[in-house]
């Protein structure tokens, strides 16, 4: 089977999450991705939890299928070796702040002189005109997301959602420029700032503040614009329910809470009364076990779901059948479950999944195959 990016060569100087997440997309679908590191200047996520037999599961999931190249771009001699790679590359990815990449002489102006066809992808905290270092947790704070995430105080999201969205956005930008290059023959530059990605994730909330002049309240497990759209207690746990229109609300009330059927016809009315409605809903839900309530709601075509744990995911065959998750046998980590295909092409699949590389020993490019379950 053809590979989507079979003839594409990517040089990746990025580290931790956003950049590696982006370059992994190209690696998964057949591109040759060369990760530039040295033992003294390596990706710090090689040391992130979970660690087993000296290997990081964090690093593994973001860097699978890539190659390692031991090049110290801080030295003139090795920088020339790096430039040789750039001359042959299709894509370059980095996540340095603007001042650092200019100091290292790996900025777009420099590299585009060496290779005019190069697609240069940059992801950083605040864009190309703001020399400030950032991580996902900082952007969750400074983008405003944390200000209304929680019950009564700001709460960090448990996963690095801005990192993932930033990496995905950069992959989209690079793929768009690859298409443009097919038409023009010329390379180009794209930057994704994490702060702007955080603003995109604010959705309607910043619009609401611009209209009302008020900051959003802490919504807890509810939504800031739609009700009911959140988590609710049952007899033995919790359930997620999403009712996005008035017809579904009427059906829900008639079959689950007939006492309030015919009331709170509009989303606006439900938003105004959501505290009262949550109490009513959870009073009724206390007579249901979670699985029984989900079965009843699904029969009514009311969107709902159980709040799954990681062990629940690993024990759900459907996710593996659909290739959303994959079981792998790793030489150091043992049997692991990894996120797999999140873009489903009809003709292209992730094939021959491989481990993340060790840092190259000079004269050897490291890349090891995984056996797939």
List the helices and strands and how they pair.
Elements (H helix, E strand, L loop, with lengths): L8 E4 L5 H11 L3 E6 L13 E2 L2 E2 H7 L3 E4 L5 H13 L2 E4 L3 H6 L4 H7 L4 E6 L11 H7 L18 H24 L3 E6 H8 L2 H9 L16 E5 L4 E5 L3 H11 L10 H6 L1 H12 L4 H10 L4 E3 L3 H5 L2 H5 L3 E6 L3 E6 L31 E2 L1
Parallel strand pairs: 1-2, 1-6, 2-5, 6-7, 7-8
Antiparallel strand pairs: 3-4, 9-10, 10-11, 12-13, 12-14
Helix pairs in contact: 1-7, 7-8
Describe what you observe in this structure.
- The chain is an alpha/beta fold.
- It has 2 domains: 246 residues, Crotonobetainyl-coa:carnitine coa-transferase, domain 1 (Rossmann fold, 3-Layer(aba) Sandwich), CATH 3.40.50; 78 residues, 2-Layer Sandwich (formyl-coa transferase, domain 3).
- Helices cover 38% and strands 16% of the residues.
- The chain is built from 15 helices and 14 strands.
- It has a 6-stranded parallel β-sheet with strand order 5-2-1-6-7-8, sandwiched between helices. It has a 3-stranded antiparallel β-sheet with strand order 9-10-11, covered by helices on one side. Strands 13-12-14 form a 3-stranded antiparallel β-sheet.
- Helix 7 crosses helix 8.
- The C terminus is likely disordered.
Name a few traits of the molecule.
373 residues, alpha/beta, Rossmann fold, formyl-coa transferase, domain 3, 2 domains, three-stranded antiparallel sheet, 14 strands, elongated, disordered C terminus
């Amino acid at each position: 089977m053809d590979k989507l990016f079979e003839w594409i060569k990517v040089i990746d100087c990025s580290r931790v999450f956003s950049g590696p997440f982006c370059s992994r997309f190209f690696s998964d679908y057949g591109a040759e991705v060369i990760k530039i590191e040295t033992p003294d200047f390596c990706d710090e996520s090689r040391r992130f939890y979970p660690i087993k037999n000296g290997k990081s599961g964090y690093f593994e999931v973001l860097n699978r299928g890539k190659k390692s190249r031991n090049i110290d771009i801080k030295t003139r001699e090795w920088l020339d070796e790096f430039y040789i790679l750039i001359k042959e590359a299709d894509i370059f990815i980095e996540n340095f702040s603007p001042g650092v990449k200019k100091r290292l002489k790996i900025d777009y102006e420099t590299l585009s002189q060496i290779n005019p066809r190069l697609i240069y992808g940059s992801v950083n905290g605040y864009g190309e005109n703001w020399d400030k270092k950032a991580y996902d947790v900082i952007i969750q704070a400074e983008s405003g997301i944390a200000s209304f995430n929680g019950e009564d105080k700001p709460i960090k999201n448990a996963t690095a959602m801005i990192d993932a969205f930033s990496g995905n956005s950069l992959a989209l930008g690079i793929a768009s420029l690859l298409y443009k290059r097919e038409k023009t023959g010329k390379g180009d530059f794209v930057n994704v700032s994490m702060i702007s990605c955080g603003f995109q994730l604010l959705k309607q909330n910043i619009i609401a503040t611009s209209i009302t002049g008020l900051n959003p309240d802490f919504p807890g497990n509810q939504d800031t614009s739609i009700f009911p759209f959140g988590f609710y207690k049952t007899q033995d746990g919790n359930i997620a329910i999403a009712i996005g229109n008035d017809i579904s609300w009427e059906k829900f009330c008639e079959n689950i809470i007939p006492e309030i059927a015919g009331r709170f016809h509009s989303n606006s009315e439900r938003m105004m009364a959501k505290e009262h409605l949550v109490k009513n809903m959870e009073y009724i839900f206390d007579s249901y076990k979670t699985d029984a309530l989900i079965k009843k709601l699904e029969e009514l075509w009311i969107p709902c779901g159980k709040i799954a744990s990681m062990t629940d995911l690993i024990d759900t065959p459907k996710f593996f059948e659909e290739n959303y998750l994959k079981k792998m046998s790793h030489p150091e980590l043992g049997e692991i479950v990894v996120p797999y295909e999140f873009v489903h092409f009809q003709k292209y699949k992730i094939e021959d999944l491989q481990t993340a590389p060790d840092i190259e020993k000079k004269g050897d490019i490291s890349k090891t195959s995984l056996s797939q379950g």
